[in-house]
Amino acid sequence: MPRLQKLPKVVFRLMRLPPRVIYALGLGSIMGRLVLLLTTRGRKTGRQYITPLQFAKDRNHLLLGSMRGKEADWYRNIVADPHVSVQLGSRQFEAVAEPIEDPEQITDFLELRLSRHPRMIASMLRAEGLAPPWTREKLAGYARQIAVVAIPVSKSYVEPEESRISD
């Protein structure tokens, strides 16, 4: 079990507040470089839940990772109902999210995130007890503990400059 997964849910709920406030103030273009707002339907309640999440863009998908693994509420909601709404900067669109089960694809996601945001991802990996250097083998071991979701984006979608990851 990932170390960060052991944190109480209240910690994760508190971390969601600043991005949501920034988006609510109409400043989503600032947060949209790193964080999007994902709206899912609750698997038990049917209510809509908004979760700010970091993302990576790969080909025609937005990739979202959960350090809490498959226990994250937003991930479990997607498994129950994959229809989501995404707000990224000033753009909003509907999509059908696809959980990624293949450890190789999850390892690719980790490598992309590490190459794009080395300090931030390195801090998260250290918090999980992974020491550098982060080889593909180490990342593959960690990949089995996290959950990743792909959200397709249309060809007309243009992502914020900072989120682009070359193929």
Q: Overall 3D geometry?
A: globular
Report the CATH topology name.
Pnp Oxidase, Chain A
The largest sheet, given as strand count, sense and whether it forms a barrel, is: 4 strands, antiparallel
Order of helices and strands: HHEEEEHEEEHHHE
Low-confidence stretches: 160-167
Radius of gyration, in Å, reads: 15 Å
Number of helices: 6
**Sheet with the most strands: spatial strand order:** 2-1-5-6
Helix content, binned percent: 25-40%
Question: Distance N terminus to C terminus?
Answer: 31 Å
CATH class: Mainly Beta
Which strand-content bin applies to the residues? 25-35%
What structural category do the secondary elements indicate?
alpha+beta
Do you know the CATH architecture? Roll
CATH superfamily: Electron Transport, Fmn-binding Protein, Chain A
Roughly what is the average pLDDT, rounded to an integer? 82
